[in-house]
Known about the structure:
The complex is a heterodimer of chains A (338) and B (319).
Chain A: H1 3-18, E1 26-30, H2 39-52, E2 55-58, H3 66-78, E3 83-86, H4 94-103, E4 108-111, E5 124-126, H5 129-143, E6 148-153, H6 160-174, E7 180-186, H7 192-206, E8 212-215, H8 218-231, E9 237-241, H9 245-252, E10 258-261, H10 264-279, E11 283-284, E12 299-301, E13 305-308, H11 315-334, E14 335-336
Parallel strand pairs in A: 1-2, 1-3, 3-4, 4-5, 5-12, 6-7, 6-8, 8-9, 9-10
Antiparallel strand pairs in A: 10-13, 11-14
Helix pairs in contact in A: 1-3, 2-10, 5-6, 7-8, 10-11
Chain B: H1 2-10, H2 14-30, H3 37-62, H4 70-86, H5 92-117, H6 121-140, H7 150-157, E1 159-160, E2 163-164, H8 168-183, H9 185-195, H10 197-202, H11 207-233, H12 245-254, H13 266-285, H14 293-318
Antiparallel strand pairs in B: 1-2
Helix pairs in contact in B: 2-13, 3-8, 3-11, 3-12, 3-13, 4-5, 4-6, 4-11, 5-6, 5-11, 7-11, 8-9, 9-11, 12-13, 13-14
Amino acid sequence: MSIRVGLPVVAVVGLLAQGALASDTRVALVPGGPHPYFAAWADAAAAASADFGIEAEYRVPSAWELSRQNEMIESLVAQGFNAMLVFPGDAVGTNSTLQELADFGVPSAALAGCTVDPSAASFCLGTDVARSAYLGTKELIEAMGGSGKIAHFTGFLVDPNTTLRIEAVEQAVAEAGGDVEIIQVIADIDAPEPADEKINAFLAARGSEVDGIVTTAWVPAVVAATSLRNLGDQRIKMVGIDHDAVVLQAIEDGYVHGTMLQNPYGQGYIGSYAMDLIRQGCAVKDDAPWLETAQTARFIDSGTAFVDAAQVADYQAAMVAVTEEVMSTFKDDFLDCN
Amino acid sequence: MTERLRALALADWFGLLLVVLVAGTALAFMQPAFLSTYNIYVLLLSFSLWVLVALAQMVIIAIGQMNLSVGAIGGLVAITFAGTMQVWGLPIPLAIVFGLLLGALCGLFNGVITHVSGISAFIITLATLSIFKGINIGITEAQPFYHIPDAVKAFGAARVGGVPYMLVVPVVAIVGVWLLFNRMVLGRQILAVGANRHAAELSGIRVGRVVVIAHMLSAVLAASAGMLAVARLQLGQPTIGDDWLILSFAAPVIGGAILAGGHVSVIGTCLGVVIVTLINNALVLLGIDPFFVQLLLGALILAAVILNRWRERRREAFA
Lengths: 338, 319
């Protein structure tokens, strides 16, 4: 069943199924596919359900395919979900699905990744990836004492964010005034085996030459942390990304200097809160303090935080603090509820 | 002696050996770190994993079929191996046996369905790829198993000079598969089924049995690769195996395997893996721009295949 044919049918079924829950918000948090990054959305959904009296659920498509995500969204509407938070399976392709949802009165927002404008998504709430990469590199340069050679390990080249990350790292290095040099960028290592192969090949060839490593994708961060631990190397400074247990343990043990948290918990929690308010009649402001990215003019930074050995034991507190900071002004800044 | 050298030069993998030697020598001159102990270790680690993946596909190519679920089986066994140790507290040897049995079961499933239905293994394994991956994601919910026993982690990182302990597993597998295809009746039957299924049937070979065994062997090799990946990565990552498909075909084809079946080369496949590993290593060592890595990787693999085929045709022309 195509999304165009499917949604009208399932929307009617869903609305009938909703019955007594007609005034309640039922929001589904749908990632593009299975990935450990999104696991925090499940906790966020549970917390939002308890705190806002809504029903929020985390539902994962079985694979990273746009069609599977679309089918899941159809199914969720049929089950009575009336708001969607979606990590776009495709920055352009997801727009038609979100438009269908809007046509049937189901509000939506893009979460953790944006759709390309024009879009029916109310907003895009995610990490400012360029800022995160920039700040992470700044932290690395500081840890290196302001000079040295660094390597950048990152993710899929087809992801437009990868280019933004590469440019952000270059910007931070350029601002160091010639004392810091990027000696290698290794990309397309989002699968663990090639990441292990390439990162270790790099360390074999240039491990004695490099002073710092910045990683801007989940898998390279995990693999690089493991490699430094296996080598017993605490000379090379590394700043990772996200909150995988391997990276956090490596920070605690002194093999990794720190990591840039992306706040997936906050994305799920704030997104659920916003969907509930929109369903209650709040409108998204046109003159809100939106950030503009290459994809959308309605971007909200869900926040980023650097965590090093001093804070790693209580890293969740850093996520909660960032979330509270964004939450404190979210309603006034972005929504008109009069 | 001269006869032996002549026989060696006529071997279908000899061209690949020359490519490996020339490429290795060139790399050693261009980047001295290429011959460092640690880089040799890194190369052998990659070889250890990839050769199992390539052999898993090669066995199925030998019967004239394709197995798209090699990576999904490896991934499923990887998380099962890690999960049974973490959640059930299974001792390592039992977890290994459990993983191998699970692999064999996946292969049995592939083989029986392929044979009984008469549908192309390409279609069947495309479907089972989704099934095995789905079970993987259903069990893990995309979360890795982190608590791998220290002995497994130590095995994945241990080495003597530039030789990783992990190399023991593929060496045993290579010898076993070579013996199968060169010294055992079953190996000959597999090749006969691949060369001409109908003729094999008429000559009394139980084709169904051969197909099922080939699929089981392929899956056990993939399962071994999955467990090695856990030891190497030190966690049961659900995405293990996602990236195996291209290499699983590239190495046997570079090694001279005929996709229609009936002819494969164990040594050629091993050299195919060495070539792909060398190319990957070189692209990092030489600091190639990341935006051109895929292009160069594809072009170099294509060049290796064409060179080997050109050499084979010349050999056939002069034979």
